[in-house]
Amino acid sequence: MDTIFALATAQGRAGVAVVRISGPSAKQVAQTLCTGLPQSRTMATRVLRDTNGQALDHALILVFDAPRSFTGEDVVELHLHGSIAVVSAVLRTLGKTEARLADPGEFTRRALENNKMDLAQVEGLGDLIEAETEAQRQQALRTVSGALGEQIETWRSLLIRAAALIEVTIDFADEDVPVDVTPEVQSLLAQVTDGIREQLKGFSAAERIRSGFEVAIVGAPNTGKSTLLNALAQREAAITSEIAGTTRDVIEVRMDMNGLPVTLLDTAGLREAGDQIEAEGIARAIARAKNADLCVFLVEPDEELPVLVQYGDVVRAPKADLRADDVPAVSGVTGLGVDHLVDDIATELSTRSQSAGLVTHERHRSAMERALTDLSSASALVAAGPDRYDIAADEMHVAIRSLEAVVGRVDVENLLDEIFSSFCLGK
Question: Which of 73, 95, 247, 302 pairs with 324 at a CA distance of 20 to 30 A?
Fold first, then answer.
């Protein structure tokens, strides 16, 4: 492979900037900038110089010998002062060596190709880089640690044993086999099937943690929906007015709500539309509210709306600052009841998040669904008797390949460019 380099920290001025070099000539390339590299997995300060011998920076140098590095190759890291000029000068000097600038995600791709990570861990690393909330960080870190890969390997081992038992029976079909393997094979298939189903149950919650929950604020015109959105977002995200029907389209605000990623939706007031534009806004409001993970209803106790309250939704009376009754209410104007509202929303979403499993991407879900179909077929074929064992074994191997695709062992080459294109150059 080529030797590659890139800035591994963010662009722009910073206290420290890290430039990473990886590949078979990483050490030789680093030595064109300085002499006397430190020993592997140790660090030392050196003066970096350009091709004319002019000093570029005083840098901290770290060396990692293959395979004990992130990429599995020889890696040298240059920890520079985070000046834009310093970083540019060092990258320009490296560009004059045999090394080339890395493509997006190329360091991580090499880690995958050198068996330092599986594909699920790579996706988890991408999620970790994109994480904005504590729940996203925890979930991504669990994936990066290899938890899903370990589970896949457990299932794979069980299926390999099940297939082996069936294949032994086929090989000795003309002889008396002293033990009936059917009960053990069916037990192994059931164990894997139950495990996959259990993980798939948590996909919806895990996917929502990764992409964000949607919470729609629903109510009639002039109930304070936009004002409440602004209070929750702590900024003027929506126009507020005493004129009914001010909100015509769905307004979205992304926020961190007690560690969970939430997109708040301010929707048009639900009533008989006064014109075609308002009618379209109301139709969109109803559609988004029905598809949201949770709705916050701003309604009077006896009020009816075209959107029904579902289990888990939060109901409040509007304009708490103007009320004299004891109905649970909220006011975006004064903030009265807003903290309790946030707690109720966060508690409900946190409860749903507890069911999150290891399956966090649609690709994982799809592969596991295919494996379930194959396992169901294999179980039926095993139950049909020895005449169908050969087909049953084939179905088991197909299921194994579906599970292997989750961690990148087979049939994923066409996905790699798409996955790594979202990574930054230094990853």
Answer: 247
The predicted structure's pLDDT at residue 425: 64
Render 272-339 in DSSP notation, one character per residue. --SSHHHHHHHHHHHHHHHHSSEEEEE--TT---SS---TT-EEEBS-GGG--S-S-B--TTT-TTHH
Listed as ranges, residues in the chain with pLDDT below 50 are 178, 238-248
Fold for the domain defined by 134-202+360-408: Four Helix Bundle (Hemerythrin (Met), subunit A) (1.20.120)
Rounded to 5°, angle at Cα 297 from 259 and 307:
120
Q: CATH 1.20.120.430 spans which residues of the chain?
A: 134-202+360-408
Q: What is the pLDDT of residue 179?
A: 62
What CATH number belongs to 4-113?
3.30.1360.120
Alpha-carbon distance values, 401 to 119, 149, 368, 407, 410 (Å): 14, 14, 10, 10, 7
Does the domain formed by 213-353 have CATH 1.40.20.10?
no
pLDDT at 308: 83
